Amino acid sequence: MKKVLVATDKPFAKVAVDGIRQVCDKAGYQLILLEKYTAQSDFINAVADVDAVIIRSDKADKSVIEAGKNLKIVVRAGAGYDNIDLEACTNKGVVAMNTPGQNSNAVAELALGMMVYQARKQFNGGSGTELSGKTLGIHAYGNVGKLVAKIAKGFGMEIYAFDPFVNKADIEKDGVKVVDSVEDLYKKCQYISLHIPANDKTKKSINFALLSSMPKGAVLVNTARKEVINEEDLLKLMEERQDFQYVSDIEPDCKTVFEEKYKGRFFFTPKKMGAQTEEANINAGIAAANQIVAFLEEGDTKFKVNK
Ligand code: 3PG
């Protein structure tokens, strides 16, 4: 009997686990759950004799991949797969996949929710501002960026986007204005919503030059990854510009400085929760289970992300 391990430090909603179990039962696979584990060694031990693994932001590093003696596939139930050691997977002949688009709406809703929260002075009772009529720059127009645009349109925002990998006409047909450079985007927009992945090219790429060019009352919204921010630059800007605000679904490494010095100008969720809805858990979790069955039974590699 094939074995599927669900290793989630931040567990899926129960309904999603039930759905994953149903997919496994139907395929005749055994489901093993490792939730809220505290040490990486727990993951390493659990992976020892399974055929497939479903993870979220859990680290599928070299030690995990090599410990999986029967491991054939790792699926990141979600979009960003910067937590998987792709080289280790390729070297061991393990297929790595993600489930693009499955949790995007949850992340997009949170991005807009955080914008409202900050525009309304964190609900402190004082007069805030409205999103209507404000400029929003979507940095990367993938599954999440597209949905952010759709929701922001409902708020009456003026929406711009920059994404060199997406056809200009495809963005424009959503009623979004395309800018030619990332510099243009930051210069034009009071709100920037980040949707770039974390990779060698993007890490620390959100720097002083970009952020300092944003208009007065600038709000940077990060539901992507903390690694894409140059935190030293961000702190320099927070110090120099009293109007600058940072809201993020990922606590920065320099969180204590924000807490000490910039009260009211920042908000960080205690644990990444962009994708933490029942719907997103169901969509991404069940898609991951189905992708595993399709791969193990038919060799389907549609969502493979390693070479
Ligand atoms: C993703 O890349 O899909 C999101 O960041 C969600 O991550 P999570 O599954 O750890 O909440």
Please characterize this protein's 3D structure.
The chain is of the alpha/beta class and 307 residues long. It has 2 domains: 123 residues, Rossmann fold, CATH 3.40.50; 165 residues, Rossmann fold (3-Layer(aba) Sandwich), CATH 3.40.50.720. 38% of the residues lie in helices and 17% in strands. The protein has a 7-stranded parallel β-sheet with strand order 8-7-6-9-10-11-12, sandwiched between helices. Strand 1, helix 1 and strand 2 form a beta-alpha-beta unit. Helix 1 packs parallel to helix 12 and helix 5 crosses helix 6. The radius of gyration is 20 Å and the shape is elongated. The site of 3-phosphoglyceric acid (3PG) has 11 residues, from loops. 3-phosphoglyceric acid (3PG) binds next to loops.
Topology:
Elements: E1 3-8, H1 14-27, E2 30-35, H2 40-46, E3 52-55, H3 62-67, E4 73-76, H4 86-92, E5 95-98, H5 104-119, E6 135-139, H6 143-154, E7 158-162, H7 168-172, E8 177-178, H8 182-188, E9 191-194, H9 208-212, E10 219-222, H10 231-240, E11 245-248, H11 255-261, E12 266-268, H12 278-298
Parallel strand pairs: 1-2, 1-3, 3-4, 4-5, 6-7, 6-9, 7-8, 9-10, 10-11, 11-12
Helix pairs in contact: 1-12, 5-6
The protein binds 3-phosphoglyceric acid (3PG).
